[in-house]
């Protein structure tokens, strides 16, 4: 018996050490390794275009709520081509997603170029942790607990892992960019499609056709966001029908960088089990596009953004 206990004890200790090492490795190497991750974000508070609102009602709702907030970033090299804020309420099993246009105006002290005042440039200068700070500031200080980043290859792999995503394309989509690396060729005929891999990425990237092609024009980033939201909803519905979210989450983490620790991954996935797609609400950051200094920006509406966040934290939102 003593020998058994000794062997069992040694084996158990080795298992604990091994498992701890796996957790440590995951929590270390799965994080965004951006070289500027510790460069602080300081907003240009003297910029008159950026409106601050002190909102005690929202702060009160945040304090008494246990929502889990994260920002999902679709990366195109050093820029965040897609930015989605996700707020999940584990108690009601409901989620709200706010798509933030990549041209959203966000002036930062010390970054004075026209392109640097767009929110999608923040990732290149501050990494994913910096984007968390930017989104929190844009949303009046509400906490952003986690980030999740993935590139085009990751999107393609995750879509393939659920067997593709069904979409209806109402009009010819055609765009060619021979100077992209690699060259980009998008061509989808009108009708029903099940998009997999790189085709899904092309659908999500599409904004406008080549001149004279007569193909669909999504009228800029806001139109592209609407298509992305419809695609995400279809992908979520498809994933839920597979009935194995923890397994899908484990597969998905291979393609992402995140500060969600390993212990949290399967717990979060398990808490989503049973969610109804009708409880997943899609929104776009309120505001509108206009020019300033020769550059096109999306200027958010601070009052409407505040009202939307209050509705989210009160559980009173509806799909747009």
TrEMBL record:
<dbReference type="Pfam" id="PF03816">
    <property type="entry name" value="LytR_cpsA_psr"/>
</dbReference>
<dbReference type="InterPro" id="IPR004474">
    <property type="entry name" value="LytR_CpsA_psr"/>
</dbReference>
<comment type="similarity">
    <text>Belongs to the LytR/CpsA/Psr (LCP) family.</text>
</comment>
<protein>
    <submittedName>
        <fullName>LytR family transcriptional attenuator</fullName>
    </submittedName>
</protein>
<dbReference type="InterPro" id="IPR050922">
    <property type="entry name" value="LytR/CpsA/Psr_CW_biosynth"/>
</dbReference>
<feature type="domain" description="Cell envelope-related transcriptional attenuator">
    <location>
        <begin position="79"/>
        <end position="239"/>
    </location>
</feature>
